[in-house]
Amino acid sequence: MSKKLLQVEHLSIALKNPYQDLVKDISFSLEEAGAVILLGQSGSGKTMTCRAILGLLNSSAFQVNGEIFFDNRSLLQLKEKERALYYGNKIAFIPQNPMTALDPSRKIGAQMAEFLNLHQDLKKKEALSLYEQALSRAGLTDTKRILSSRPYQLSGGMLQRCLIALAIAGNAKLVVADEPTTALDAIHRDKAVEQFLHLQEQGCALLLVTHDFDVARHVGGHVLILKEGQMVEQGCAQEVLQNPIADYTKELIEAIHLGWG
Amino acid sequence: MKSHWIKRIVRLLVLLFGVSILCFILTALSSTDPATYLVRRGNLSPTPEVIEQVRAELGLDQPLPIRYLNWIGGVFRGDFGESIFSTNEVAADLAAYFPQTLQLVFLSLAEIIVFSILLGVLCAAKKNKLTDHIMRIVSLFGICVPPFWLGFLLLIGFAVEIPIFSVTPASGIMGLILPSITLSFPVICSTVRVFRASLLEEMHRDYVSFARANGMTVNRILWKKVFRNALPPVITLFCQYVSYLIAGSAVVEKVFSIKGVGNYLMNCIMAADANAIGACMLIIAALYLLAELFGEILNHLLCPWRKEESDAA
Amino acid sequence: MLRKIWRNPQAVIGLGLIVLICAVAILAPLLAPHAPDEVNPLMKYQAPSADYPLGTDQLGRCELSRLLYGARASLGLALPILILLGGIGLILGMMTACIGGWFDRVVTGISQVFIAFPTLIIAVAIIGVLGNGLQNIIWAVVISMWARFMQLIRTYAKTELGRDYIVAARVSGCGMWQLIVHHLIPNILPQFLVYFSTGVASAILTVSSFSFLGLGLPSGTAEWGAMLEEAQMALYSHPELLIYPGICIFIAAAGFNLFGEALRDILQPQEDVL
What we know:
The complex is a heterotrimer of chains A (261), B (313) and C (274).
Chain A: E1 4-15, E2 20-31, E3 35-40, H1 46-53, E4 62-70, E5 73-74, H2 83-86, E6 91-94, H3 108-119, H4 124-137, H5 143-147, H6 156-169, E7 174-178, H7 186-201, E8 205-210, H8 213-219, E9 222-227, E10 230-236, H9 237-242, H10 247-257
Chain B: H1 2-28, H2 34-41, H3 48-58, H4 64-76, H5 90-125, H6 130-144, H7 147-161, H8 174-203, H9 206-213, H10 218-255, H11 261-270, H12 274-302, H13 304-312
Helix pairs in contact in B: 1-4, 1-12, 2-3, 5-6, 5-8, 5-10, 6-8, 7-8, 7-10, 8-10, 10-11, 10-12, 11-12, 12-13
Chain C: H1 2-7, H2 9-31, H3 63-99, H4 101-115, H5 119-130, H6 134-161, H7 164-171, H8 176-212, H9 224-231, H10 240-267
Helix pairs in contact in C: 2-3, 2-10, 3-4, 3-6, 3-8, 3-10, 4-6, 5-6, 6-8, 8-9, 8-10, 9-10
């Protein structure tokens, strides 16, 4: 059995004021180069789970219980300075909307070089050329122009590849993608899924959050179905999506077949 | 993008024209007739014939559009006419009074920029903590306090009770410290809150959580990303305040007995000095429009995306 | 909404101060121990006593009585100013937002010309034209401040007009007038109240600085700004005469500001995430 990369144990998240449960007792684990898909409607707590793993939940507003281990290290106990050892380094993040993920005022090259410099001891030029190589590996050709563009000058699909390239340049072990296909049109969606599969082939584990059953089927791996913060069903993607056991999953799949998905 | 700035400059010219018309109308409508005033002051018996003669000499008997053209033509040559109040050329009077006021205004502006930026960042970083609450109370005080009263309190405190400064205007920077605080304090109190709100709004943006998810520390995000993107609203305010401070200096100059433009303007009002009032109004309003354009250019250089957003809207 | 106001301590304090100032303004003749303009040359600069609770000023007038009557002058100027401003702002703002086209451009252009002049400058010039007097000072402040109110209402009305419910109402055959009265005004009213309240505060400050500069009011009027101006010559000997009127202006402005800002907080609760 291959090594566990990410372990989420009895994770619960609640809003402090006014008190409201957002995620209740979710556990799963992810192996190296494996894939876990969190599937559910909006409000099912999948994005919250994602933000907890990425350490984006402010402790003054949220109460987080349970444990999250990465490489046997608790991510919930990280100090501010230790964050850079994991986030942006071994763990890469692909956000839902690539259009708003970067600082709108600065050039993409400068921003990305700054991110890479947080984790690797590079000169600015070295960081830029490293990122430029990653851009072409992510399938972009016009790399020089992209580096000197500002985010609002590029399309959503292009920006998403720029973010994937950041994960490639940083040699990420785990890519956490929150609804990466929602902001894209159909053609870009398929291309993005291929990108993720390609990353996985190169030994990168995937944690994918989506409400899109097609994307889930395409990527495969382990699936968790979430409803109102609780897990209703889990298992191998093909299995769960073909022969669902829980009523909720059946309802969801039926709804899609009726064209309401 | 180019067409945007061309349109912007055309708008500036149209507004400048509008401003000059308004200045002219207000001075032309003045209830006190400058001719009568001159005649009375010259100890001439104010017979209607004499007044008519003086009116003709001043060009006041011509129709309004001609008078406007005469006036604006003079303005382009730097000639604002003669001040009734001081009997000097208005341009010479302004040259004499403006430096004092500009010193005061720029010192105040420097205080405003430095303190609103520093305190704004401090409040945003310590949001809802003790520092933030104290600043909130202080700034509420600053917004409600009448500026001239603040000036008196400073005088009573730091010139009468604890004599650090003198009550009569001192020369150099020492004489400007209390007046500039009086002028800048209420402004700082409102801009700090604008900047704090702008910073907090930027802190909620996606790029902040993306940078967090890439291991950047909160402080670094605040200074390197959020700070720059939160500046435009306060830069717009700073630019507007250049001319508002000149106007506000009228009150402060009275409190601290400084002989500046504000003081001069008040004397001109009392003397119904149309030429001088028109000149002061025109300069202050033109300065406002130019500073506004300057602020827009600065904001465009800092955050080009904001322009794209407003163009789309 | 009302319940939220009662639960907000800042709003309650603000409202309390507003009620206090209004009560003083209305009841001034009953509360004041003397007439505000009762000159008594023998009683100059008296220390506080039972007869003169806050002492007397340079003409032997009762300081407390003048302060109480000052509330009348302040509110009596600030409220009509704000009502006029609100009316002009509402009408022009709504018209520009709803009619649009060249009308919008022209009115907005004119308002931009007015905004280029600082309030004080334009008001000073207008008082120069109209001469001193209560009505003139009201018009001067209105003319110098209408542009801001109008632009504000216009922006709000435009945002509201772009919303889905307005589009839906128009599609379903709702007339323009009906739209304004039934949908637009109720929806921008809360924001309008916020600006009305803080606007009263800034009008109080503006009016007091005008009378401090000797503009507008007939001399000797019991008004806080004018009292400060008269007390200026007693800076060394009787600084307390400079302090009292300032405190009054401050309290009046604080009441309206506190209430207005609390109202704004209630309307736009701040998010506390991240």
